Here is the input.
Amino acid sequence: MPVGLVVVSHSRALADAAVELARGMLPGRELAVGVAAGDVDGGLGTDATAIADAIAAVDSGDGVVVLMDLGSAVLSAETALELVDDDVRERVVLSPAPLVEGLVGAAVTAAAGADRDRVAAEALRGLAPKQAHLGG
Amino acid sequence: MTVVDAAALTAWVREFARLVHEQRDTLTQLDSAIGDADHGANLDRGMTAAVAALEATPPDDPAAALKTVATTLIKTVGGASGPLYGTFFLRAAGALDVGTDPTHHGRALAAALRAGYDGVIARGKAERGDKTMLDALGPACDAFDEALAAGKALDEALGAAAEAAAQGRDATEPLIARKGRASYLGERSAGHLDPGAASAALLVEAAATALAGRG
Here is the structure.
């Protein structure tokens, strides 16, 4: 099974659009990606219990890479790790990658069947193509 | 009499919720100066939900009461105070061991508060002086521990903790924020009380009020 991905954002619309963009790079390919975004009322916010549920839903035993936007998304993702089972926690990587670029890199490698550490590494170098192009 | 039981901690949570609701606009006003103007509304929503959860399923033991508050705040607050206060209550619940001897309840509560405080440090990667809730919680834990070590009753020790938390909150005014949204402001964050320290002082004040007369 491919490595699972979870997208954590303050905004449901932002997360869904990021996933749509990543899926656009993978026509016809399977990808296990979950979204945990927005607060309980559909407003801006993050919810660690929703993140924990999303991790459990995409975890096939081969690992999960979590990508997030900023601020409370980071704190909630870390808190979510306190809420999942011990064996699941060991398979999860919280990626410090930029959300959009990291997700695209992770999605392409995950769909190609790479292992968790490879997927996480690809997410982390998500800015590299843009930096190389713009000379930043 | 049992000093720190589920009813006592439920009373604490209820009093904290009441104070947060009463000071909701003040907290939001503080947050609008240096943050994103949602602290009062977010914490009020979370604590209202926490009280409702405790009413819906009354906890059997004090640790269960704190665990319910933790998961409810994590689920309903939305902003950074959700995981931060959620972690505080989660770690406090994990550390709370009241045992059977009521004379140890004060120390058990102090150990739980210290575990919660350490949890907030770990979660936020912050330290005292960063202009955060730690600036109220840290002095409160110290004052509580010192008062109990000096042989003071729970009442008096919690009173000392509340006073230390209020002083710690007031001392955040000149500080430059080093964590969270306020840190983007750099020196412009000085001259304002920290909203997280303000709500944390209410948490300790609520404990002193709700547990008064219990020892």
Q: What stands out?
A: Chain B has one domain: 6-209. The mean pLDDT of chain B is 94. The interface with chain A takes residues 42, 71, 74-80, 82-84, 86-87, 90, 123-124, 180-181 of chain B (CB under 8 Å). DSSP finds nine helices and no strands in chain B.
